[in-house]
Design brief:
Elements: H1 2-5, H2 9-29, E1 48-57, H3 64-70, E2 71-72, E3 77-86, E4 92-95, E5 99-100, H4 105-112, E6 120-122, H5 130-133, E7 137-138, H6 151-174, H7 178-181, H8 189-214
Parallel strand pairs: 1-6, 6-7
Antiparallel strand pairs: 1-3, 2-3, 3-4, 3-5
Amino acid sequence: MAEYSGICQSKVSEWIKYLLVVLHETLDRLNFLAQRQGSFSIDENLDYILCDVTERQVSRSTDYELQKEFYSGKKKTHTVKNLVFSDSNTYIHYLGETYEGSLHDKTLWDEIGLKPSPVTIIADLGFLGAHKENENVILPYKSSKHHPLTTLQKQINKAIAQVRVRVEHAFARVKRLRVVKEKIRLRTSQILDRIMDIAVGLHNLRVTFRTINNKP
């Protein structure tokens, strides 16, 4: 970027700090940023909403205690994670706060203070137990060594997976922004959170205009 702009590397770093703020505020004024503050209220016009957690790789800290906090057993590396609610068009309605990779998905769910809603929420087994607190939550069946899944349960799980793949598509499109896709070497928690917020806002902008252009 420094070579392309004809300026030194230090100036690039300085300008990025300013321009990230401008981009974030612009997306906010255009209402493309996902909801973040307070309890999440699901739009009742939706047929259903998808819930999942996305992780981003970060640099390993030299502090051993911090290493343990950010180490994700699922990804086998050091990450930060965010809880996301997305609709069937991959538009992201809610983006949770950025947490250390060692935290369980269900813990992130408990932190958001989800408001009661009749809209069906489809999630994965990372949120096991959420269906006991919310009757409208649908989870796949879980198999065990002594209780294998029946044919019907496998068919139901397959149907749920075919619907849930849309939230994975949303994650893939958010991570078109390479700073979100690749290992982030910035260590400030505020900038890690803001970058994800901007990536989601840019994704929502693309989804909105794609939907408008596809209308007859």
